[in-house]
Amino acid sequence: MPTKETNGFEVGIYTLADIGPDPLTGKSISTKQRMDEIMDAAKLAEEAGLDIFGVGEHHRLDYAVSSPAVVLSAIAQATKHIKLTSATSVLSTLDPVRLYEDFATLDLISDGRAEILAGRGAFIESFPLFGYSTNDYNELFSEHMDLLLKLNENEIVSWNGKFRSPLNNAEISPRPVQQQLPIWIGVGGTPESAARAGRLGVGMALAILGGDPMRFKPLVDIYRRAGLQAGHSPDKLNIGVTGHVYLAETTEEAKDEFYPYYSNYWNYVNRQRGMGTKMSRDDFEQIASPETALFVGSPEQVVEKILRQHELYGHTRFLAQIDIGGIPFDKVVRNIELLSTNVAPMVKKAIGQNR
């Protein structure tokens, strides 16, 4: 449950650490190189003044990170100020005690910079891997979230559930530097998930990968209404937006550069899900148009999209995924520069002026 007041609007980046072939060369980098680049990106993000760095969890050979806490702990040693979050932790198939203790340890190592963004995950390979059934998909998440919040609130926990052994006056160690770890729930598009996040009083991170931003407004309303009805203070009901971002000096340049990588990304993600469709340039142009939620364009264009969403949602955090589809690291570096020097200051200034 978030315990810190959000001081202004936060901008950061996150990675899911996919290892896709570069569509222009056909070559894939090694897992070792991908990990090195993630470390370098985190250090660059801090040096550039961004607020947050996130790392996702997958259990597949075409992704480099299965343990965000381990990677973030390494990043913690190379940084001093940037907040460190999972993006997301697949809570349905993680033991909540192990997850909490790992991130409490990260919080100690980082001097109070750890956060957990929990979700149900886009893939299901972790279910058989850790001995769970996809038939229990929703029930597992609910039970594990219930326990995770109790662990966050209490040093000694007694608890009983369906899917793991009960806890009887169990000592939960270590305790973090922060009074409680900030916990968020990732929400893709279901009203039930938004209502759950509100009832529990945790942050809601909206995964907005495209389409009309207006279609997510009902989720924001459901979240806030459920939170207030459950007795949570409005200033604790924090909303974040996560999305794909690609920046260049002009919008046309950004679209020309990003299209091969964006199309490539969805081609192999859809293939992993048993679908073989490939995105045409015309489809991409429609997806990247000024009215949509795909953050591709000049800094001014992306700022405009972020501010339009802020008018709709009143969110306090924006996290950009800038390294998908085999994008070479030099382009990732350029995007960090543009995000930190052009986009973030303009967004923060505009939101500050509107308060």
Characterization of this structure:
This protein is α/β, with parallel strands linked by helices. The protein has a single domain, classed as Luciferase-like domain (TIM Barrel, Alpha-Beta Barrel), CATH 3.20.20.30. It is 44% helix and 16% strand. The protein has eleven helices and twelve strands. The chain has helices spanning 31-47, 68-78, 96-110, 126-129, 137-153, 191-200, 217-229, 251-272, 281-287, 299-313, 329-354, and strands spanning 10-15, 52-55, 83-86, 89-90, 114-119, 156-159, 167-171, 183-187, 203-207, 239-247, 295-297, 317-321. The strands form two sheets. An eight-stranded parallel beta barrel has the order 1-2-3-5-8-9-10-12, surrounded by eight helices. A two-stranded antiparallel ribbon has the order 6-7. Strand 4, helix 3 and strand 5 (114-119) form a beta-alpha-beta unit. Helix 10 crosses helix 11. The protein is globular, with a radius of gyration of 19 Å. This is LLM class flavin-dependent oxidoreductase. Keywords: Monooxygenase, Oxidoreductase. One of its GO terms (molecular function) is monooxygenase activity. Pfam families: Bac_luciferase (PF00296).
Task: Write a short abstract of this structure.
The chain is of the alpha/beta class and 355 residues long. It has helices spanning 31-47, 68-78, 96-110, 126-129, 137-153, 191-200, 217-229, 251-272, 281-287, 299-313, 329-354, and strands spanning 10-15, 52-55, 83-86, 89-90, 114-119, 156-159, 167-171, 183-187, 203-207, 239-247, 295-297, 317-321.
